[in-house]
Amino acid sequence: MYSPPRTLHHDTVSQTIRSTSTSSHSSAVSGHFGHYLAPFVGSSSPLSFALLIDRNIRSASSLQAFNDAALGQMLPTPIATTTTTTVPTTTERADAASYNDEDYLNALSDEDYIDFVANFLKPTLIELVFVLVFFLLMLIGVIGNSLVVFVVSRNQSMWTSMNLFLTNLALSDLLVLVFCLPPTVINDVTKTFWFSESFCKIMLFLQNTSVYVSVLTLMCISIERWKAISSPLAVPFWRTHQVIVVIWLISGCLSIPEPLTLGLYPAEYARKNLTTTWGTRCKESWSAEFQQKYQLTQTIVLFITPLLIISGFCIHMSFILRKKALQIGTRQLRDRQRAIKMLVFVVLIFAISYMPVHLHNIATAFHIEPAEEPNLTIIALRKFIPRFMSYSSSVFNPILYNFMSEKFRKEFRRACCFGSSTTKPQHPHLLSRNSQTSKSMNRTSPNRTSINRNSVNNRSLRSVRYASVSAY
After folding, report:
1. Where does residue 321 rank: exposed (0-12), middle (13-18), buried (19+ CB within 10 A)?
2. Origin, by domain of life (predicted)?
3. Cα-Cα end-to-end distance for the chain
4. Fewer Cβ atoms within 10 Å of its own Cβ: the N or the C terminal residue of the chain?
5. Phi then psi for 270, rounded to 5 degrees?
């Protein structure tokens, strides 16, 4: 196992590479940098730098390969020479085209060539900006989802099926934001996977599990809402807690196969003694043909099919509400419409957030090339934007609950201000008076209690399903 340098400073990189390099080896540097570990992302086979020079950056088969192509253009095979050439500055390397000069790179000495490699691996300005953006994204998401879990867990009046499922979504989002986002961003910016092979497998397992949990939870929410609106008097045929446990078990089982194929692959240098942690990647070991089938299957099963099913339930629920508008009260109708609206917005956020990732995965698997030659800034944007969209879904859900649910707004404010419970205690003398009154009524009319009990049970049977629709 390689031990990574502690910093990304230019001198540290140079020292790391020089420590195992000899001037007698002066061949091409080859390797695969910048592995993309977003949910469902596959990895393409490594391309040698020499091949990338011949085909230029247009030979890249994916956004992940774009990053390799840019590095490959700048690191062709140097010939043995004693000529010393000035190492380009960070500003100069911003344009990949200016480094497509093989004669220039061949003229580099071994020392300058190593400095050139180290200088290229330094994060660009656009990458540093995205580091800040992802940090803010993680901070907002962790705070928002933690508030959702805290608010629902402390208030039993909010323990409805809808809120428990939403809390389950928040838990899966917290899992991704805390354990997956930071190492993934570090991997992208440094173009190196610094962690162990076990952590590589665990990280992808958690990412895939979270996505499966989100999809299955959204489907359960839509089914539960549809059942409550279409058959409000029917007895619920499931327990929410048991369903949530089953969701996690199924998601975990579905997430096991892909991490088993993962492994760490250090960057391969033609200079045999040049070994370094820089460029190490975490990728699957299966074939390109299987990768194409796998990505298509995941997109259809985990994205297109759930969206069609949930959309069908939402349309049918809207039709039922429109049909029963005259049979139920205005307030009840408004509460149900608000519940459906929240479900629609949650599903839209999921669809918009994960669509770029699925499109990127398909482009990666089928080697869809860009029409024009991009520069390094475009490469970075095309790599970071799909990742930003996928992680943003973990941030927007708590914001959506705050805007659309009055109960969540009250509890969010109460949690932020460290307020007390929502239930206000009655005055002591009122409690004693009510207690005495009820006791006297029970003594004088023994049948009254049973009659009232039956009346309450009948009313609760009729209204329990209605209440579950609006109590979110």
Report:
1. middle
2. Eukaryota
3. 50
4. N
5. -65, -30
Q: Which two tokens stand for residue 363?
A: 């482009």
Three-class SS of residue 262?
strand
Look at the alpha carbons of 34, 40, 46, 50 in this order and tell me if their dihedral is positive or negative: negative
Alpha-carbon distances, residue 76 vs 34, 116, 139 (angstroms): 18, 12, 41
Alpha-carbon dihedral of residues 310, 316, 321, 322, nearest 10 degrees?
Answer: 130
- Residue 262 backbone dihedrals phi, psi, to 5 degrees: -80, 150
**In this predicted model, what pLDDT tens digit does every residue of 250-263 receive, in sequence order?**
999 999 988 999 98
* Third-level CATH fold of 125-416: Rhopdopsin 7-helix transmembrane proteins (1.20.1070)
Three-state SS at 211? helix
117-149 core/surface letters (b: 16 or more CB in 10 A; e: else): bbbbbbbbebbeebeeebeebbebbbebbbbbb
Look up residue 142 and give its two tokens: 């962790």
Three-state DSSP state, 351: helix
Residue 202 token pair: 């665990």
Q: Domain locations in the chain?
A: 10-121, 125-416
Q: How far is CA 13 from the centre of its chain?
A: 31
Distance between CA atoms of 297 and 305, rounded to whole angstroms?
Answer: 11
Its pTM stands at 0.64
Query: What are the Cα distances from residue 195, in Å, to 176, 186, 200, 405?
Result: 17, 10, 7, 41
Which of 273, 260, 195, 282 lies closest to 1 in space, CA to CA?
Answer: 195
What pLDDT digit, counting tens, does each position of 280-325 carry? Answer: 888 888 888 998 999 999 899 889 998 889 888 888 888 887 777 6
Mean pLDDT, all residues of the chain: 68
